[in-house]
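Sequence, please.
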């Protein structure tokens, strides 16, 4: 279980998947959630369930920080966090990675500015 804050206008949990099921709960802010082939707006007070191995992405499209809680079950370490920090997360649509749903926010895959992997 964890708590993250996504920066306004583009802060993101990029397109990824993992073996565990996961739930996001939006505490504050608004954005776009993509799960598999579906794309929907999401805002404070809403939650979304991601089944195991299904690709998903969350993007803050609002003008204020998005605060979110995530829960993995079963708990444990997941590869995509290290890949995001290192800037090695595979891009949507490359190799075996499926494409984002049509019209989705672009995927962020670069190492965040000022962060040393």
């Amino acid at each position: 279980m964890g708590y993250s804050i996504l920066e306004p206008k583009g802060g993101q949990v990029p397109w990824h998947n993992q073996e565990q099921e996961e739930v996001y709960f939006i505490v504050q802010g608004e954005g776009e959630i993509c799960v598999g082939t579906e794309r929907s707006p999401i805002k404070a007070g809403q939650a979304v369930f991601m089944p195991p191995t299904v690709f998903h992405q969350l993007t803050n499209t609002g003008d204020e920080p998005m605060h979110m809680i995530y829960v993995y079950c079963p708990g444990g370490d997941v590869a995509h966090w290290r890949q995001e920090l290192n800037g090695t997360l595979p891009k949507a649509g490359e190799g075996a990675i499926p494409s984002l749903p049509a019209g989705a926010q672009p995927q962020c895959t670069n190492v965040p500015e000022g962060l040393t992997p």
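The two ends are 22 Å apart (CA to CA).
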